[in-house]
Structures are given as structure tokens and as C-alpha cells.
Amino acid sequence: MGWKELKKGDVLEAGTAQNFETGDWRSKRPIWHPEICIQCLFCWIHCPDSSITVDRTNSKMTGFDLKHCKGCGICAKVCPTKPNKAITMEDEKK
Amino acid sequence: MPAVAKTGNEAMAEAMRQINPDVVAAYPITPATEIAMIFAQFVADGMVDTEFVAVESEHSAMSATVGAAASGVRAMTATSSQGLALMYEILPIASGLRLPIVMPEVNRALSAPINIHCDHSDTMAARDFGWIQIFSENAQEAYDNTLQAVKIAEDTRVRLPAMVTTDGFIISHCMEKIEMLDEEQAKAYIGNYKPEYSVLDIKTPITVGALDLQDYYFEHRYAVAEAMRSVNEVILEVGKDFGKKFGREYGLFEEYKLSDADIAIVALGSTAGTAKAVVDSLREKKIKAGLLKLRVFRPFPHAEIASALSKMKAVAVMDRSDSLSSAGGPLFTEIRSALFDMAIKPKLINFIYGLGGRDISKEEIESIFSELGSIAKTGTIKDLFNYLGVRGK
User: Fold this and answer.
1) What is the pTM of this model?
2) Does the beta-carbon distance from B196 to A10 stay under 8 Å?
3) What is the pLDDT of residue A18?
């Protein structure tokens, strides 16, 4: 695309970050244990990258968007279930 | 059109009232304070429909103006000197986002030492930010230029921000007789604004100012450069149309007794008025002196200036700011560069003058013309870079 085809100003359609894989440098990945999960959605509200996927029809957590998850581990940290957490982190290399 | 007595600041505030922008975000700074102050009174008195945002700094003033303009409305602000310097970070964002913001700017020296009086250091330092820069010789031009700047900046070939300058105190606080457009005339002249885009249009959500690295930054900046190249054509159209409608025509620069001149000076702003008086008195003595008063510094009308000056024998370029490059003021280097490719060109010298508001007298301009006379005769330049009237030099 040449410069003439660009819109005036630095203007793009919204939400283009969706199309860009920003999770490819993750060193740890979250693992979901649905049998323990109580569907409190703490992980969803705390995730800084909107990478907790939720079924819009029933508002239930369904897993992770690993294309954008950076592996920060906040979801595992805030998961309240005891004694075992419903989200744990494991090495990406494993 | 009734004649009224207005200072430069009043004239620009009146122009803003007639433009009736949707948003004005401003912070006071001498000598531009009155522009926002008078305009705020217009807002308080219900004479305009403007949302006035009283911000806490010029950085915020320009940021709020950019935000408002990106939402698709007419947005303005006004400032001077250190205030403009505090806006520097945001100025290239306004041009990069192609927002046709119009800003009255009252030229004042930069610190240190602290000084509130006129020189052009503030806007010269902002010359490479993609803003159109239009200089005014007096209050009438300040008023006319502010109105025209809206037409120029908003033209779809342009869509770039514009600053209209006056000389601090010399124009901003000096009362002159000016002619203003009738209210209906001004309203019809300014017309409606159709924005290129709006961040508040929820039906078409957009991202504005996204990250744009090695891949497309260059093309976006090229588009700004290309828009800048079309500005002068629009300025000429707007200036001609203004003349046809209201009797005062404007170009890229004014040639005062220049066409048959042997020696000439180039100046910006109020100094041009003093220079005209000197040119008149020299002409009475049969000395072929002339003046090129530059109106548009950005974009720089290099080809037009080169052709207007090429047949002179000697020319002095007057810079009311110093680039501190050790190689001449900003106007000098641009004009020298413009003349480089001309087969015939004049001897060119530079005078840096009037920093911090120091007055320039008719006698001093006469002495410059007399030096040009001897350069024209001998073909020898004594000093290329001169600092006019610096004590102890």
C-alpha cells in the first residue's frame, strides 16, 4: 500500500491489536483446572490483557486467549480456590 | 465594514469570536494572555457557543485542543514563548493527526534571561513540526490572517494546523485602526467544518495515533510533507478570494517597491512597517531600495522567493531570532538555500536583530541599506553574519 492509500492522519479501524500476536514471548502459560473452578471470574476481571475467554451466553470462563496472554500469572495469583488453585502456571518450554 | 480601534490581541480575539470555535482550551502567558482572556469574556457573555477549557498548563492546552479536534470539531488555543515551548511535545501530534487547529501566537523571546518582549525565537524553534506559520505586520493583518488560517488549515488538500503570529507588545498591545468583517459576512466566510474523522463517532470506531514503526511511519510522514507542499497554492487562493470579497488581498509575501530594486531587505512582522518608511525615504533620494516582507514562513515559498530576489545586487536578511548554529539565523539559511540554484543571484548578508524586544530604528535600517549599497558597488562582503547593535562588538 502506497502513502496515497493511507487515511489522512494516523487513523485505523478500531481493535487491530486483536490481529497481532503479542503472546509469542510468553515464558509461562496458565493451565485451567475446570473441575476446581468456581466461576468467580476474578481471573477475568484482573487479567491486564483481556486474555481470559468467557462464553457470552452464560458468562462462564472457558479458558485463555493464548495469542495475547503474556503469562504474567496474575490470574493464578488471584484465583481463590483452596487448597488447590483452579489456575496454575507451568513453563512454556515443558 | 466599520473601522474600529483594536490592539493586536483584541483583533485576534475578535477574529476568534467570529470563527466561533467549538472548543478553546487555553492558559495565560504574557503577551498573549489577553487573547484568551477577552475570548473567555465572550464565552461568559454568551456571545459564542464555545466550550472553554481552563487548563493548568500549555501542555494541557494543546493536548485538550488536539483531543477536541480529533473528536471532529473546530478547536483553538493561543499562546506565546515559553507557553509554546511547553506545547512542543504536542505540536507534531496535531500535524501528524492532520488536525486543522488554528492558534494565534504572540512572538516573544525564550528564557534565559527572562524576557517578555518580542523576538521570533519561539515560533522559529517550532518551524519543523508540520504547522503552517503565518506572520503579521500589524493588527489588521493579525485579524485577517486568523480568519484566513481557518480556511487554509481546513481545506481538504491541507488539513494541517496553523499558527498566526504577531510581534509581542509591538503588535499585540499597540492599538490601531482596523476594519472588521460584519458579523453575517464573517459567519458566511468561515462556513461549516466537515472533519476528516471523529473519535466520538461510535458507529465507526477508529484508532487514532496508533503505533506505526518501521513499516508505515515513513509513509504517514510523507503524506504530511506532501500536504505541506500543497499549502501555498491554497494560501494564494484564499488570499485572492479574501481580497475579492473584502478588499485586502494577501500572497505568500509582499513585494514593496521590489520589482526594480537593486538592494533589498527581507523581514518578518512589524519590522516590515519600519522598513517600508525607510524604503520610501531612500526612493526619494533615487536609491533603488526595496523590501520583501515574508508572510508565510511554513511552508517556505523557496522558488517564489528565489525568483523575486535573484535580480537584486545585494540583499540583507533580517532575523529576529538566532538559531545559535554559528551559521546565521533561520530565515537567512533558508533564503540562501533557496537562491543556491539560481544562475543569477544577489550578494546575501544576515542581520540578527531585535532579540528580547530591542527596538529597531529607521536609522539602523538605513545603515543596513547603505552597507548593501557598498556591497552592490564593490561586490565584497565584509561580514556575512551580523548582530545589529550588540554593545562591545
Assistant:
1) 0.92
2) no
3) 85
Judge: A8–B98 Cβ closer than 8 Å, yes or no: yes
**The domain containing residue B267 runs over which residues?**
253-387
| Buried b / exposed e along B202-238 (16+ C-beta atoms within 10 A) | eeeebebeeebeeeeeeebbebbeebbeebbebbbeb
Determine the pLDDT at residue B360. 97
Q: Look at residue B223 and give its three-state secondary structure.
A: helix
Give the C-alpha separation, A42 to A75, whole Å.
7
DSSP 8-state secondary structure symbol assigned to residue B356: G
CA distance B294 to B360: 18
Q: Which of B200, B223, B246 is the last residue of a domain?
A: B246
Is the per-residue pLDDT at A94 higher than 70?
no
Choices 3.30.70.20, 3.90.1640.30, 3.10.450.50, 3.40.50.150: CATH for A27-91: 3.30.70.20
Same domain? For B217 and B291 the reply is no
**Set of chain B residues whose Cβ sits within 8 Å of the Cβ of A12:** 206-207, 210
Contact residues, A window 50-79, toward B, CB-based 8 Å cutoff: none
For chain B, which residues score pLDDT lower than 50? none
Inter-chain touch A8–B197, beta carbons under 8 Å:
yes
The ipTM (two decimal places) reads 0.82
Asked if residue B227 belongs to a domain, the reply is yes
Which grid cell sits at B40? 473567555
Question: How many separate domains does chain B show?
Answer: 2
